[in-house]
Design a protein that fits this description.
binds flavin-adenine dinucleotide; six-stranded mixed sheet; alpha/beta; oxidoreductase; 10 helices; FAD-binding oxidoreductase; FAD/NAD(P)-binding domain; FAD-dep_OxRdtase; D-Amino Acid Oxidase, Chain A, domain 2
Length: 386
């Protein structure tokens, strides 16, 4: 019989969503224990049976979508609630940077190019129109005939996502939280007497017990929901490919990310190389997705047509899954029908840029602290489970 690991909150999924939330909750629990006991509770909690446990199916954290992003945070990107969460996330990361050895964020503008109408449609408080001549000044590799309108978001930043994941991992363990990798949660049941109920979850070789489970399983979140008897959100994982290519004429290190308003491509400097993506949105099953040579070659041809950078070869390519709910907004909050089951899923293409704000919101709901950042209703999982 396998021994059971008991905790207050079991977080399933070790991507940016699960890690940022687990760290936030563990830090708050440690702080409240510390103030309750008047002692240095965080250190004493290490290895205790309570607190937060994060379980990840893969041998390493961030193996799936969270290690495959373009690492850009764009306040003008997405619907208003996403833009709101992005601005809040930037503020929270900037506050955290004060305690970090090096910054997580670095300036990198976002330049949108294309035809007049789709560029105009993306205008927002963070995206202002610029003349094509100004756009060419910022991105001289663009061929002038490739676009007729442009918009610029100067508040956009590059994000060192590895450093951000490390920050959350260290914050979680410093607060006494525990991380278990290589364990896929496969089965669950609700046990205990009324008022003292808890989940028993079985993974590959381990068992977990917790009154509360957080579903941060990315592309697998609907599958995890079924394991816990919850109705799915109707999540769809969409493929998105990226590649790092060698070029004849490297972009300026301070060059913006350039994106086509028609969603045919985007690119940005990656050292002396260039990161490119076809911006595709192709439905997939939940899987360890892989790039297709034909897609990457078609993208190389397109980028060579609209720019003068001169791609000479593909250094590496990858594909990740951007998982969306039917309305494209994340699902964050208690399941409306299954007690002790909390959703943290459907971050789509905004998982990093909304991460700290969503972790803040989710921790407030989970710990019943009444914290509100204006997105609770819009993200409620109840909207997809009528
Ligand atoms: C090419 C590309 C570019 C992108 N660019 C950006 C960008 O510039 N900015 C931005 O903000 N976002 C971007 N994104 C989106 C962002 O990467 C995602 O929104 C984010 O990584 C999702 O994080 P997650 O934690 O929800 O999912 P994941 O990172 O996939 O984590 C979920 C984890 O759950 C685990 N899991 C699943 N089932 C179980 C189980 N039963 N038991 C235990 N563990 C389980 C999985 O193994 C996985 O590690 C991009 C995505 C792609 C693909």
């Amino acid at each position: 019989m396998t021994a059971s690991t008991a905790c207050d909150i079991l977080v399933i999924g070790g991507g940016i969503a699960g890690l940022s939330l687990a760290a936030e909750v563990a830090a708050r629990l440690a702080a409240s224990r510390q103030s309750a006991s008047g002692q240095a509770a965080a250190g004493q909690n290490r290895g205790s049976s309570g607190g937060v446990v994060l379980v990840e199916a893969e041998p390493t954290l961030g193996y799936h979508t969270s290690s495959r992003s373009a690492r850009q945070l764009i306040p003008s990107y997405g619907p208003p609630v996403i833009q709101h969460l992005t601005v809040r996330t930037l503020a929270l990361i900037r506050a955290a940077e004060a305690d970090l050895p090096e910054p997580v964020l670095a300036p990198r503008s976002f330049l949108l190019i294309g035809d007049e109408e789709p560029v105009r449609d993306r205008a927002s408080a963070h995206m202002h129109p610029v003349m094509p001549a100004e756009a060419l000044g910022l991105a001289p590799e663009l061929r002038p005939e490739a676009f007729s309108a442009a918009g610029l978001d100067t508040t956009s930043v590059a994000c060192n996502t590895d450093a951000l994941l490390d920050y959350h991992r260290e914050r979680l363990t410093a607060a006494g939280g525990r991380i278990v990798t290589g364990q896929r949660v496969q089965a669950a049941r609700r046990t205990g007497s009324p008022g003292r109920q808890r989940w028993e979850a079985a993974a590959d070789g381990m068992r977990f017990e917790a009154p509360v489970v957080v579903n941060a399983a990315g592309a697998w979140a609907d599958i995890v929901a079924e394991i816990f008897g919850a109705r799915p959100q109707g999540l769809t994982p969409y493929r998105r490919t990226a590649a790092v290519v060698d070029v004849e004429r490297p972009l300026d290190a301070g060059a913006p990310m350039v994106a086509d308003a028609g969603d045919r491509f985007y690119y940005r400097p990656e050292g002396r190389q260039v990161l490119i993506s076809p911006s595709e949105r192709e439905p997939s099953v939940a899987e360890d997705s892989r790039p297709r040579d034909a897609d990457v070659q078609a993208l190389v041809e397109l980028v060579n047509t609209v720019t003068t950078m001169g791609i000479t070869g593909v250094a590496r390519a990858w594909t990740g899954l951007r998982t969306e709910t039917p309305d494209g907004l994340p699902a964050v909050g208690w399941d409306p029908a299954v007690p002790g089951f909390f959703w943290l899923a459907g971050q789509g293409g905004y998982g990093f840029q909304t991460s700290s704000a969503i972790a803040e919101l989710a921790a407030g709901i989970l710990l019943a602290e009444g914290v509100e950042n204006g997105a609770r209703e819009a993200l409620s999982p109840a909207r997809h489970q009528v």
